[in-house]
Design a protein that fits this description.
Helix content is 25%, strand content 26%. The chain is of the alpha/beta class.
Length: 265
C-alpha cells in the first residue's frame, strides 16, 4: 500500500489569460518536490470562473481534445506527475465546468461540476454534470468534485468506501473561506476518507478576492498540510492507505450508512 504524495497549488489566477496561467503552472511544477505523485490546481485554473454571456464563455471553452488538455498531458509527462483541476469545456455546444485528472502516461479522466452556483449565474452559462469523476491511480481510489459541489453531502457521499481520496477544486471567495474549511473537514469525517481542497488566489473581474486557502485533511478531520519547505506557495501532504484502512477497520461507520439513489431532473 503505497503512500500518495500530493502537492496543492493555490494558484493566483489571471482571469481570461490562458498563457499567463499556464506559464505560472509550469513555474510551479519546476519548483515542486520531485517525489510528488499528484499535483492539484484550482477550479478553472486557466481562465478563472466564467462571467459574461454564453458566447464570451464559449470563446474560452475547449473540447477534451483541445489545446488545454494537450498541454496538461505534456506537462504531466514532462514532470512525471498526475495533474488534477478543472477547465471550461465545450461538448457539442454544451458548456461545462469540467474536472480533469491526467496521468503521466497520458490517461485522462473527466467529470463535469454537478452543482452550478446559481447566485453568480453559473447555471445560466453552463450545463450540470450527471456523473461524479472516479479514478484509480497508484493503488488509490480517487473521486473529484468542483467548488460548490462540496456543500452537497449526498453528491460527495462515499458509498461502501468507493474512494480513498476526495479532491475538491475551487474558486472560493475569501469572504466565505471559513465555510470552505469546515466543509472540507466535514466531508472527510463523514466519508472516512482523505480530502484535498485547492482554492485559487487573486481578484476576479468583479473585484471578488480569493486567498488561496488549500488544505489536505485526513479521515479524522485533521489538517495534515505541510507548508512549502522552500518558503513558496506550494502545500504538501503524504496520504497513507495503511492508516486509512486501519481506521476503517477499527471504526467502520460506513457499514451503518443509509442506502439512497440520486434522481436527476
Amino acid at each position: 500500500m503505497k503512500d500518495l504524495k500530493v502537492c496543492l497549488y493555490p494558484q493566483e489566477i489571471v482571469w481570461n489569460d490562458k498563457e499567463r496561467n499556464f506559464s505560472n503552472l509550469e513555474d510551479a511544477l519546476k519548483r515542486m518536490h520531485p517525489a510528488t505523485d499528484l499535483f492539484i490546481v484550482p477550479e478553472t485554473f486557466s481562465t478563472g470562473c466564467p462571467y459574461g454571456d454564453k458566447e464570451s464563455v464559449r470563446e474560452l471553452a475547449e473540447r477534451n481534445s483541445g489545446d488545454t488538455v494537450e498541454r496538461l498531458k505534456q506537462l504531466a509527462r514532462r514532470y512525471h506527475v498526475a495533474l488534477a483541476g478543472s477547465f471550461l469545456a465545450d461538448t457539442g455546444g454544451l458548456l461545462g465546468n469540467r474536472a480533469f485528472f491526467i496521468e503521466p502516461n497520458g490517461e485522462e479522466y473527466f467529470g463535469d461540476k454537478r452543482h452550478l452556483f446559481s447566485m453568480a449565474g453559473e447555471d445560466k452559462l453552463l450545463s450540470p454534470g450527471h456523473k461524479r469523476m472516479k479514478v484509480r491511480y497508484r493503488g488509490w481510489e480517487i473521486a473529484m468534485v468542483v467548488c460548490y459541489d462540496i456543500r452537497f453531502p449526498v453528491w460527495c457521499r462515499n458509498v461502501n468506501n468507493e474512494y480513498d481520496l476526495l479532491i475538491a477544486v475551487a474558486n472560493w471567495p475569501k469572504a466565505r473561506v471559513e465555510a470552505w474549511k469546515k466543509l472540507l473537514m466535514a466531508r472527510a469525517i463523514e466519508n472516512e476518507a482523505y480530502v484535498c481542497g485547492v482554492d485559487c488566489k487573486g481578484t476576479d473581474v468583479k473585484d471578488i478576492e480569493y486567498d488561496g486557502t488549500s488544505m489536505a485533511i485526513d479521515f479524522k478531520g485533521n489538517d495534515i498540510s505541510v507548508p512549502d519547505p522552500e518558503g513558496g506557495d506550494l502545500v504538501y501532504a503524504t496520504l497513507s492507505l495503511e492508516k486509512l484502512y486501519a481506521f476503517r477497520d477499527k471504526f467502520p461507520a460506513y457499514k451503518d450508512a443509509d442506502s439512497f439513489r440520486i434522481i436527476f431532473d
